[in-house]
Amino acid sequence: MPESKSERMCIGCLNKSHPNALIRLVFVDSPPYVAPDLVPRGTREFGGRGAWVHPRWQCVRKVSEKGQLARSLRQDVRIDGKWLAQAIQKRLEKRAEGLLLAARRKKALTIGIEVTQLNLQEGRVALVAIPSGVTQRSAKLLEWALHHNQNVLILPFTPSTDLGKLLSHPEVKAVGILDAQIASELKESVQRWFDLAEAE
Length: 200
Ligand SMILES: [Zn+2]
Hints:
Layout: E1 8-9, E2 16-17, E3 23-27, E4 34-37, E5 50-53, H1 57-60, H2 68-73, H3 81-105, E6 109-111, H4 113-121, E7 127-131, H5 136-147, E8 152-155, H6 159-167, E9 175-177, H7 180-196
Parallel strand pairs: 7-8
Antiparallel strand pairs: 1-2, 3-4, 3-5, 6-9, 7-9
Helix pairs in contact: 3-7
């Protein structure tokens, strides 16, 4: 397998994966001395030695166990898994916000239940996303979309405080992403966000 050469070991579960399935951690000069390197694929925000971890809570919570992190970074660092999970989640939220704005710039974003449903029915929507803490009407749209085998996503954002502010609307109950590439990146970021949420 030619791919195995580029595989990296997750310092949480010690299994190997392709770098695309992992998050790179790097040593930085200021406390807590470790930062997630979460730039788009194929580029790197930080050079130098890295440690790799699966973006899942089961792996992230164990990063400092057994000294794997310190060994990989060749630095005497220990970080709290919970802190790291939250730090990565924050970056993923930023990326999700950036993708929503990118979709809007490309005029590939529908905002609101009616217009999203209309575009869905016309087969133009690559992904339907609704905020968490959904209203009944948002849930109905989601149900409809699922029933018609559409791609759906729950966002870790609130309708007004998060999404409303971001998109300058009083309340955003649903959005439709019309661009397939943005849709798949958004879905991946949000799925990782949920995978990092502490399972308790
Ligand atoms: Zn792992």
